[in-house]
Design brief:
The chain contains 14 helices and ten strands. It is of the alpha+beta class and 532 residues long.
């Protein structure tokens, strides 16, 4: 099988890089926030500016109206004279067609000039217009223009229905913003009444181009736009810095992963940050260390398995060569060699079967949880089956199984295998005259429903402290003084306890061991009691 090529990273398009996405997201967020802030600020300033411009315009209109009302200025006399003349002309228009014709002629004449006797009013309108850059119109009580700062008053249509005129005649303040039909220019209009006592003489209307009103806002908007652009540029630079700082550990982690995938397990991410990336790097380093340990154990397993297989094969080879050399000269010796070859072949078969069982157990899919099962009858059957063997080995066998043992969520056949293995080890390692005990009991634990404990203990030679941490490893055996008893029985390949530990853990339990040299060993298995 060809080895798959390592996924060496090619050049990633800029738009698909994480760094670009971070910078773009950061910049877009800043742009949105700045835009919202600018919109809110400009809207608030716009409202304030409109209110201020309206107030200033109304104050100026009121000042002009006060000037017109001053008897010493003579303006009020012109207004009164204009009003009397208009009233007199109106009465004459009711006398007949001749008078109507004369009125039409006068009206036609008014299209090209202001009303006679209004020079003072025109001068006042022009002065206010030039002083403040405004459009000033003085209107009579009917909404017709008397004088206008832009030219002929006759060009101004009737203003009776305009909001500012209506407000002035009702003695309230109100402005209006609209487009002048004559020039397509938007103006802000405000007006103030001119009256002597309760007698309304006319209305002073002032208008200011909206371009002048909004000029400060345009300047502010330009300033905000430049400030926003500078802030966006600064945020982009900061985003690039932060993105590179964030991406650099990821690139380091990627390089380390590729090195590990190439077989260099000495590499480490070497990232000391305390954020999520640092946590990921430490998890990666832990994974590599676990991988190193797994490979070490795998190599040790292969070496031990090779050793265990080589020993019986060597014995078979030596015996077969001896048989070939004897060539039937010594039938008794030949028969003994044949029995030894048969024994070694059986040993090979048992070792192969054990390895196969261990492989199946470790590689199988996690089985679903079992329904609670009463294992007390099974434990008593195991005790009865082992009692004869204990007697043959010269051992005392004590059994204590709690009568009210609750059902457990375990596979009974696998628990049976575990108990048989532990009792078998106890028989092998306990000299004649010793004792073996099987004790099953329940124990309450804080905050839980409790556990069921299966304890297998013996009075054998015990296990040295330095060996206790390794007895569940594959092919591990203690020193020969404990491995082989005086009756010459072997301990096997050292896989029994590894199988026991795997089966216990796959059934949701845990196993522990305690031992004192020359006093014995005790294996304790604990299974949680399911809640009802």
């Amino acid at each position: 099988m060809n080895k798959q090529a390592l996924p060496v990273p090619s050049r990633i398009p800029w738009r698909q890089r994480l760094q670009f996405r971070l910078i773009a997201s950061y910049g877009l967020l800043v742009l949105i926030v700045l835009s919202l802030l600018m919109a809110l600020v400009i809207n608030a300033v716009y409202s304030v500016q409109i209110d201020q411009a309206e107030h200033d315009l109304e104050v100026k209109a009121l000042l002009a109206a006060n000037a017109l009302e001053d008897p010493l200025s003579g303006y009020s006399s012109e207004l009164e004279e204009y009003e009397r003349r208009e009233s007199h002309d109106g009465k004459e228009s009711d006398d007949g067609e001749d008078s109507a014709g004369e009125e039409d002629d006068a009206g036609d004449q008014g299209l090209t000039a202001n009303a006679p006797g209004t020079n003072g009013l025109q001068h006042l309108a022009n002065r206010y217009a030039q002083q403040d850059g405004l459009w000033v119109t003085i209107l009579d009580v009917r909404g017709d223009a008397i004088v206008d700062s832009r030219g002929s008053a006759a060009a101004i249509g009737n203003q009776l229905l305009t909001p500012e005129f209506q407000a002035a005649t009702q003695l309230v303040e109100q402005h209006d913003i609209r487009t002048d039909p004559a020039g397509d220019v938007r103006y802000m209009f405000a007006a103030a009444p001119v009256q002597i006592g309760d007698n309304l003489l006319g209305v002073v209307r002032m208008a200011q181009p909206m371009s002048d009103v909004l000029a400060p806002i345009r300047g502010l908007a330009l300033t905000l736009l430049l400030a926003g652009a500078a802030a966006l540029a600064l945020a982009t630079v900061l985003g690039i810095f932060l993105a590179r700082r964030l991406v650099r550990p990821i690139q380091r982690l990627q390089e380390t992963a590729l090195a590990v995938a190439s077989g260099d397990l000495s590499q480490s991410a070497d990232i000391d940050s305390i954020d999520e990336i640092g946590s990921l790097a430490r998890t990666f380093d832990y994974m590599v260390s676990e991988l190193q340990e797994m490979i070490r154990r795998q190599r040790l397993f292969i070496a031990n398995a090779s050793h265990e297989l080589r020993t019986p094969l060597t014995n078979i080879k030596l015996r077969s060569e001896a048989l070939l050399t004897l060539d039937g000269e010594d039938p008794a010796l030949s028969k003994r060699y044949l029995h030894e070859i048969d024994s070694e072949a059986d040993r090979l078969g048992r070792l192969a079967a054990t390895l196969l069982d261990l492989s199946k157990i470790e590689n199988r899919e996690p089985p679903p949880p079992e329904a609670p099962t009463d294992i007390r009858p099974m434990l008593l059957d195991v005790a009865r089956a082992m009692r004869m063997r204990m007697k043959d080995a010269g051992l005392t066998f004590a059994v204590s199984v709690e009568e009210l043992l609750p059902p457990l969520s375990v596979r009974a056949n696998e628990v049976e295998t575990v108990v048989l293995n532990l009792l078998d080890n106890a028989v092998k390692y306990t000299p004649p005259g010793g004792s073996v005990t099987l004790r099953v009991e329940t124990e309450q634990t804080a905050g839980r429903t409790g556990v069921a404990k299966i304890v297998v203990s013996d009075s054998g030679p015990g296990i040295p402290p330095e060996d206790l941490a390794h007895i569940f490893e594959y092919f591990y055996r203690v020193d020969p003084a404990r491995s082989r008893l005086q009756r010459g029985e072997g301990t096997g390949a050292g896989l029994g306890l590894a199988i026991v530990k795997t089966l216990v853990e796959q059934n949701g339990g845990r196993i522990s061991v305690s031992s004192t040299e020359k006093q014995g060993t005790a294996f304790t298995i604990a299974f949680p009691i399911p809640s009802r």
